[in-house]
Structures are given as C-alpha cells and as structure tokens.
Write a structure and sequence with these properties.
The structure is a homodimer of 400-residue chains. By secondary structure, chain A is an alpha/beta fold. The first copy, chain A, has eleven helices and 14 strands. Chain A has an eight-stranded mixed beta sheet with strand order 1-4-8-5-11-12-13-14, with helices on both faces. In chain A, β9 and β10 form a beta hairpin. Chains A and B meet through α3, α4, α5, α6 and α7 of A and α3, α4, α5, α6 and α7 of B.
Chain lengths: 400, 400
C-alpha cells in the first residue's frame, strides 16, 4: 500500500448563533438566580436561547413549544429576520402543519447545548472560564424545566402543545410529566420512555470516541483547539444510527468514489457511503461543542419515565394531555417502533386519547427531518383537530 | 462533575500462538516463493498457520477446510496437544456436528491475520522489519487462495467440504469460486456475496477509530506500543454489530453497574451494557494486531461475488458444489438474512442443490459461535447427509 497518512484537513469552528435567536434569562429556584438540577447540581444565571414565530393570542392559549433533538439550535424555521431555512422548515410556518398563522410557536435550544443556551462551553460566572466538565450532570428533565421556565419568563403559563422528536420527544414527555396541568396537547415523534441497552451502547461509544481524542483534554480543551476529529468520527457513528440500511442500499449500494475524491490516506474513503458520512458528519463536527455532545448524549441514556411513578406505565399515567400524537417509524433502529407503541399503549391504558401513527418512512430515525410526505399530513391533521377544540373553547366573545 | 479522567489501564499484549497451531510454508506462484495477490501486490515466503483434527482417509476424500471470521486463529477446537477450548468447540470434534472421527478437519488462520499466518505484523524478509502498511492490499480471494495452497502443501488436492461463517463464509464462497472442481460441499453461515453500504460504514468507522489513535502512527507503530485504546473502542463498535438489541434487552436492560465497578472517569461506565462491551472488547484489543484488523476489515468491504462473472448470480452459478448448506440468522444486522437468501436463491437458480436454514437465534451475527442448540442439528444433519454420499461413493473395496 505504502500510502502515508496525510493529516486530516483542519476543521474550522464556525459556531454562530443564528441572527433571529434571542436569549431569555431564567429566574431560578427559591427566588434566586440559582437553577437546581435533578441530579443535585446547580447553575447560576442560566440563559435559554429561543426563536419564535406567529403571534401570541390575546388570551395566551395558542403557544406551541418545540424541543429539539440533540443537534439543532432554536432556528427551526425561517423568518423575516433570518430567511435561511430552519431545521424543520417544512413543518413550521404560515399555512404549514404547525401553522404560525394560528399558533405562537417557540423553539428553545436545549439547556446544555451550544447554540446560545447555557451549556458546558458557556462561561461559568463564578470562575470566569467555560464550565467544561464542571458543568453539572444534566438530565432530560432539566432540559424540559429550562424550557418551561423560559416560557414563563416570556409570560406564557400554559401551552397549547408541546412538540418534540428524538431527544426533543423525550423532553416533551419530561415536560408533560413535570407540568401535567400546563399543557393541552402532546406530540412525541420517534422518542422513548427510556433508552434501550443497544441505544445506550451506541451513544456510549460516540462519547468514548470523543474522549479518546487527545485534544479533548479531559473536557478542558481550549476553544481554539477543540476535539474535532473525535467529534467527526463520533458523528459518523451517530449518522449510522439515525438512518436506515435500506435507504443507503438504494442511494449508494457499492458505488465507489471517483478517483479525484478518493482519499490518498491508507484505508481512506473509497466507497460513496464513506464519503457521504464524512461530508455530513463534518458539518456537525465543525459547529457542535464536544462537551455539549457528551452531556446531552448521556442525558438521553439516563432518562426513564419509570422514575416518575415507579413503572413506565405509572409514569405515563401522570401525563394529562387531552390528546397525544405519537409517531413512530418502521426503519428506526435507535428509537424503534416498539418504543412508540409503548408510549401510545401506556397513555391509552391510563385513559388518555391517543393518535398513533406508524409511518413506513425509509429514512430511519431521522425521517421526521426529511420525510415531509409522510409526516406533514399527520401533524397537520392533529393540529387541525386541536385548533377546532381551541376555537370552540376559547373564542373571545367580544371579538367581531 | 469535576471528575478528572484517569489514564486507562495499560493493556498488555498477549499475542500467543496456540501450542497446537502449526505452520506451513506456501510454494508460491510461477514456481517461485512469490505469492501474487488479487489486487497486484505480492508476498514472499508466505506461511499459513493451521490446526487439524482427525485422520486423513486413505483416498484423501474426507478433508474439511474451515475458514474463520475476522477474530479467531486456527485453534477452532481442543486436542490432546492443546486441551483449551477452541473458538468453535461445540461444532468440531469426535461425535460432534463436524465429526473428527469421520473427517480430517483443518482450520487455517487467515492470510493477513496475526495468529501465525503471514500478515502486516510479520517480518518482511526483504526489509527485516514488520510489513506494517507495506503489506499489500488484501482481498477475501487471497485469503481463500492461501488456504487452498496450504492444503496443497499438506497433500490435499480435493476437499470434502469448505466451511465458513461471517468473513469465513465469504472466504468459503471465494474458495468455491476460484477452485470450483476442488470441493464437493460448501457451508456458508451468516455470510454475504458482497458487503452492503451499512456494513461497509460500520467497518469503515471501526478502522477510522483505530487510525485516530495517535499510537497507530500511520500503521508503523512499534510492537511494544500498539494502538490498544483505538482497538478497544473499535471492537466495541464491532460487538454492537455482532450482537442483537433483543439479546441485550433481555440480559441487561437498564441495569447499572454496582458502585465498585463504576468508572470514576467522566462519562465512564455506568450501565451494565457499557461494562459488558468493555470487558469483551478488551479481550480482543489485548491480542489482535491493529493492522491485521484494518486489512481484514477492508477485505470484507471489497469482496463482491459479481467480480466473478459480471453479476452476483452469474458468480454464484460458477460454484459447482454438489450441495450447499446456507444458514442465516433472523437477528443478524451485519450480514442480514436477505443476504443469506440471496446466496441460496442464486445457487438454486443455477441448478445447485441447497439446504437453506433460517434460524431465529437471538445472538445476532455471532449466533454461530454461541447458539449450539440451533446450529448443531443443522450442521450435523448436513454432514450426515454428505458422509452417506461419501461412504457409498468411495468405500475402499479392500478394507476389512
């Protein structure tokens, strides 16, 4: 072979907070600025980044809160201020399934994230340095609580709906568990009541790959030298779990990259599937903070609805949403369809109204980001149903 | 969190050639000591490590050749010389499914491996140093050819059967493709005619993890400092693909490790599934050569039966085995059942006799190593059938 390995292209960090993303400072617990976390840690001066679309109604009954998956920030959809497409552009907007002509939609960047909300890369005001691994242990419940408190700071005490997919779906469940009286409807897409061992293993390995990167420096790396190679490889493993083998068979099969794209490094890129993973993982590794990745990833492992009532079903029974939309995807290997059935069945057993949809999208766990064709009508139908309820129950008698 | 990461326990290399493993020097191509590889490279003074059990019959018609998966050496089963259990102990031996009272069974360590056969960690006699990445590009066909030549050196020109599982199954196919007239029966377990993109991606990532380890040194690491941490993490990803989520759900679910086994490193082992992966991957990382891993892993990506005839089915039609046993496992995500069906159907289309078995083992791709209950009767039945044929066709009229 006799190829020497060339150093990898240096990845430049480009972590930019999108222009329409705003910050809200949380008023903490116990009348202080202290935000207490579920596993005992605490944070001061927590800020949550968010974007919003549409107008809050007079009686404040049309707010929809969206929690994100692991990767994106608050820029879920475009606006006049920021016309670039958001991560769920097809789903949110005027006349879209989550219709901003009708709803006041807020998307928050998760606590622990790196797109404006307080996270491990934020400056710890007590030390003047980034938290790094001094950031306290994070849970999905804490992310839900931070979102909840952020909405309160924005003057919203009750939600029409909480919506989330993937980690965001777990967060939506955590919201409904912790604030059962403060929402009317729940949307959980490709989510889970708890992580299965296979999923824990995949995420644990992603973290190990990042931790193996010598530049990670036990979590106390400098902003000018982040463990990008570890993040790149870890993200490729993430992508493997987010998509489905059938999709890749159809798209790439065994196609090889043309000579000009073939890596000259030994055991470098030779197949199109390798090139695809590299291209897509690079986009993430260039912008995402490694410690945020570790904290959010572990938070998903730790989440367990059974902690809210003794068993999963007892936990689900605490959710009081008037109606829940539960969506699962056949090709999802990370949050498999059985876990969506578990949520739907658990809610039904507790006497709650559930719309359950089992979609045969080919894009695996990531289908909600891609498969507009299958997802749009289901989400649109659900919100049309909930808005009829909204209109009949809350019509302002003095209007017109 | 404030846990500093302790350095990982230093892994000691213990690459020991088992005591019953013998070496055979290959007589090369063109009447020289040169062994020419499929992709153009060449090797001199190739040695192949093997073990054998049972006695070769007078008319040399009872030889069974076993090719291994990626990980094991030639020690497939115990013997007087080496009573330690082999990697397929339940399958091979006196009175066992591959019955050494009846068959002369030979298992070879793959060319490119690190348990005695010539591989990247062997000394290149031309330089006096280990090959490292100077080892030529390796294919499954080369591994089959080295096994074939080794058997010829042992005086065996015709095989009763070639047997292999996983990479060994690919190698058995490659043997049958390259030497169609030199075997009577073929056994392919959880194998493939070619790697799917999902499988290529998993293996590509394992290689990337090894290559990320700074100790890998572009493949020219020293024997006293091998990239064990990279191998450890890579092997965990391997294990993820070898086993099945259902099995782990049953065995571990969300059990946490007891405090004394909890890693004090940040984001260290907390769940039993993480501990299981670490324990099992360590056993491999301690003994397996990193470059052997890279070469054998890439060889599986490159294998494609379609190279032997234009299409997969045209390739399969070149296999002339009198009867083939094809076994697949329902929970195998690495070499999925569809790929086993493809082999069986392809052989049938070409008019070959096929016994196809679809086993519902819970142990995923690794089932053949573990699930004696399902595998034993199938393999035993097949070899009973082939030995009846053997006895009726080759009975020595002067015996007794």
């Amino acid at each position: 072979m006799q190829k020497s390995r060339k150093p990898d292209q240096v990845l430049q960090r480009k972590r930019i907070i999108p222009p329409a993303t705003k910050l809200v400072s949380l008023f903490g617990d116990y009348g202080s600025t202290e935000f207490v976390l579920r596993r005992g840690g605490h944070l001061r001066n927590v800020q949550i980044a968010y974007e919003s679309w549409g107008e809050l109604s007079l009686n404040q009954d049309n707010a929809v809160l969206i929690f994100t998956g692991l990767s994106p920030g608050a820029h879920a959809c475009s606006s006049v201020e920021d016309p670039t497409p958001g991560w769920w552009e097809y789903m949110i907007g005027p006349g879209k399934p989550i219709d901003t002509n009708r709803f006041f939609v807020v998307c928050v960047n998760s606590l622990g994230g790196c797109f404006g909300s307080t996270g491990p890369s934020s400056i710890n005001t007590e030390t003047g340095k980034p938290y790094g691994l001094d950031f306290p242990e994070l849970t999905i419940e804490d992310i839900a609580k931070a979102g909840h408190h952020a909405l309160h700071e924005l003057g919203i005490d009750h939600l029409h709906a909480v919506v989330g997919a993937s980690m965001g779906g777990m967060t939506a469940l955590a919201y409904a568990l912790q604030y059962p009286d403060e929402l009317d409807y729940l949307v959980s897409i490709s989510s889970a009541t708890r992580a299965l061992p296979f999923t824990i293993a995949i995420r644990s390995l992603q973290r190990e790959i990042v931790r193996n990167d010598p530049i990670w420096q036990s979590g106390f790396y400098k902003q000018e030298a982040e463990p990008v190679q570890g993040m790149l490889t870890a993200r490729k493993l993430g992508l493997l779990s987010y998509r489905a083998s059938e999709e890749w068979l159809q798209r790439f099969n065994r196609a090889k990259v043309p000579t000009e794209r073939k890596q000259e490094t030994a055991f470098g890129i030779e197949f199109e599937i390798e090139s695809y993973l590299d291209y897509n993982a690079r986009k993430f590794a260039e912008v995402f903070d490694a410690n945020s990745y570790l904290y959010l990833s572990r938070a998903m492992d730790l989440f367990d609805v059974a902690e809210h009532g003794g068993t999963v079903n007892a936990g689900l029974a605490r959710i009081l949403a008037k109606r829940s939309l539960i969506i699962g995807v056949e090709t999802d290997i990370l949050f498999p369809i059985e876990q969506q059935i578990e949520i739907a069945e658990g809610l039904k057993k507790a006497g709650r109204a559930v719309d359950f949809h089992y979609l045969n999208s080919i894009n695996g766990h990531d289908s909600f980001l891609i498969d507009k064709e299958h997802f749009s009508p289901v989400v649109e139908g659900f919100f049309q149903k909930t808005s009829i309820a909204l209109e009949s129950s809350s019509r302002d008698p003095y209007a017109n």
